[in-house]
Amino acid sequence: MTDGIDTVCFDLDDTLCTYTQPGEVALEAAFERVGVDDPWTIDAYHGQYGDYLEESADIEDLRRRCFGDLAVATGYDRETGWTVAQEYATVRDGAGVERLPGVRRVLESLSGEYRLGLITNGAPGMQRAKLESTGLAERFETVVCAGFDTAPKPDPEPFDVALGRLESTPERAAYVGNSLSSDVAGANAAGLRSIWVPHGETVPDRPDPVPDHQLESLAELPSLSW
């Protein structure tokens, strides 16, 4: 344990695991099934995803709401968006997830020295299924599904809830994630040390918000000087 850090929490999607089929591929397949000509991008979906977390009952409802609005914004009727959401779910959710390289080894190396938690934006059933299928479910003392158990990241609430369950404080905790806008911003707002591992993210010359640490890969984490 180094410099007072006794707790490390993680993001899930594209930090510890990833879909075996990229989202843009699944969305293109959904458009083809519905017979529309790529009216919006996967980045548009990801960019608006957080807007629907608080009001949605589950991930299917979230996609339906979001794709309905995206369809209207791009000149299609809302029902077309709902149909695309249904086809996207069929393609994407059937693809499965896999652990990113080195994840098991990193978690094993940290588990004897730190209390470990997971803070993820997403529906509890979906996120816990990912943990089970990747063999990571037993690695964490607590799992907070932000947007359902609490407000979504980057709101500080899910971080506060996780640290309360882990009997830690922001000053003694670090958070690891791949997203500047939700993971780094959320950790910074909650007072945790932010560690950015930009898997699947565009890396700007000057990240904003600024993480406390930026790693090339998760494998660097156990040797990090906090």
UniProtKB/TrEMBL annotation:
The keyword Cytoplasm does not apply. Gene3D superfamilies: HAD superfamily/HAD-like, Haloacid dehalogenase hydrolase-like domain. Transmembrane segments: none annotated. This is HAD family hydrolase. SUPFAM superfamilies: HAD-like (SSF56784). GO terms for molecular function: hydrolase activity. Its cofactor is Mg(2+). GO terms for biological process: small molecule metabolic process. It comes from Natrarchaeobius halalkaliphilus. Keywords: Hydrolase, Magnesium. Belongs to the HAD-like hydrolase superfamily. NCBIfam families: HAD-SF-IA-v1.
